[in-house]
Amino acid sequence: MKTTLIMSHPYFEDSRVNRALFEAAKGVPDVSVRHLEAIYGSDTRAFDVKAEQDLLIGADRIVFQFPMFWFSVPPMLKAYMDEVLRGKFINDNGNSKLDGKELQIAISIGAQESEYSKKGSVKFTLGEILLPLQLGAYYCGMTFNRIFAAGGALGATEADIKAHVQRYVKLLRNELEEDEYQI
Amino acid sequence: MKTTLIMSHPYFEDSRVNRALFEAAKGVPDVSVRHLEAIYGSDTRAFDVKAEQDLLIGADRIVFQFPMFWFSVPPMLKAYMDEVLRGKFINDNGNSKLDGKELQIAISIGAQESEYSKKGSVKFTLGEILLPLQLGAYYCGMTFNRIFAAGGALGATEADIKAHVQRYVKLLRNELEEDEYQI
C-alpha cells in the first residue's frame, strides 16, 4: 500500500509532537512525506497543483497530519484542499480521481483525548469535530479511516512522545490494533 | 451595537454572492468591514495581529463571512483565527478579551440549504458541520449566534442574490426575523 503523507503545521519551529511523528514517518516503507510549509511557505496560492494531484493519484492512502488548533486544520492544509482537491479533479468519465482511496487523519491535540467526549470538557468527540474532513473524504469517494490522535501534546514528556511515535509507525505500517488508537 | 465584519474569500474575483453581501454590508450603520485577502493577500503570516485584536475588542458583534468550501472556512480566515485569536488574547485577570461578544457566521453555499439536513444529500446540518466555529466561540467566552446562510450560490439568479442581500442587511441591522434565516 502506497501512502502519501501531507503534514501541515503553522508553527513547526515550536513543534515537539508533530515533529517527532513526522521524523518517524520518513523511515516507514512505502510512505512518502510532504511538509507543506517547508515546500510552499505560508502562501496559500503557491501550490504546484498538478504535481500535488499526481502524488495523490499515485497513492492508495492519503494521510493528513497536523496539530488541531481551533478544532480544525491548519490554514495551509485548508488551502491545499481548496487548491489541489478542487472539483475533486474529476475524470473524463465523471468520477473522482480519488475514488476508493483511504483518507487517514493523524492529529496532535494539546488536551488529553479523554476531554473530547460527552463527559470531557469539550463535550464533543473528535469524530464530531472533524466531520468536515469526513464529509470531504466522502465527497471525493474516499474511505475515511479511524482518526489517529496524539493527545496531551501540551506538556508531553519524552516518554509520551515516544509512545505516540511507536503507535504512529504501527499505524503507517498497517499494524495498529484497535485498542491502540487511544492511549 | 458595534459590529466588526471579517470577510474571507479565496477566489473573490469569481465571487457573485459574497461580493454582493459584502458590498451591501459596507452601507450598514455601525458595521466595519474587512476583506482579509484584500488587506493581507494570500500570506497566512502577514496579519497585523495587534491591530486586528484591537478591532475585535472594540466590537460587540464579530461576523465571519465566507463561502463554505470543503465544509469549512477559507485558509486566510483559519490563519486569522490561529494568529489573531491566539490564546484568545487573555486579559491580565485571566479572562478572554472576547468574553461576552457575539460571533455571527454568515456563509454562502453552492447547494440549496435544504441539502444540509438528515434528508438532504449532505446528511448533516450546517450547525453540525460548523461545530468547530461554535466550539471556538465558546472557548473565547463568546455567544454563538444562529448561522446565516445564503444557499444555492451556484447558479443564483440576480433575484436570488437580491433576496440574500436583503436578508443580510436585516441581519446586520438586528432586524432579521426567525423565519427569515432560511429561504
From TrEMBL, chains A, B:
Domain named Flavodoxin-like fold: residues: 1-171
UniProt keyword list: Oxidoreductase
Pfam family, one: Flavodoxin_2
Keyword Oxidoreductase: yes
Keyword field contains Transport: no
Example of a GO MF term: NAD(P)H dehydrogenase (quinone) activity
Organism superkingdom: Bacteria
Name of protein: Flavodoxin-like fold domain protein, putative NAD(P)H (Quinone) dehydrogenase/reductase
Origin species: Campylobacter curvus (strain 525.92)
